[in-house]
Design a protein that fits this description.
mainly alpha, 78 residues, elongated, single chain
């Protein structure tokens, strides 16, 4: 299941890509990255994406309300 990226999450992924590209060198085209360099890119973007999803999930976790079943006002004790 894929999760749509928020604008902030997209920016985090782009920053991660830019950070790795800066270390490797912007003069090296992406198509010429070796396996280790490409793995660094994938790892950085994946970590940024996962961090954004965790942040979104943890914020949503505080707002979760149990679903209402229609019997909220009944006097049944269970």
């Amino acid at each position: 299941m894929t999760h749509p990226l928020t604008h902030d999450a997209q920016r985090a992924c782009l920053k991660a890509l830019a950070s790795v590209a800066d270390r490797i060198g912007f003069d090296v085209p992406l198509a010429q990255y070796n396996q280790a360099q490409a793995t660094q890119v994938v790892d950085a973007i994946t970590q940024a994406y996962e961090s954004a999803i965790r942040e979104k999930s943890s914020r949503a976790g505080y707002k979760v309300v149990p679903p209402l079943d229609g019997f909220e006002n009944d006097t049944i004790p269970f």
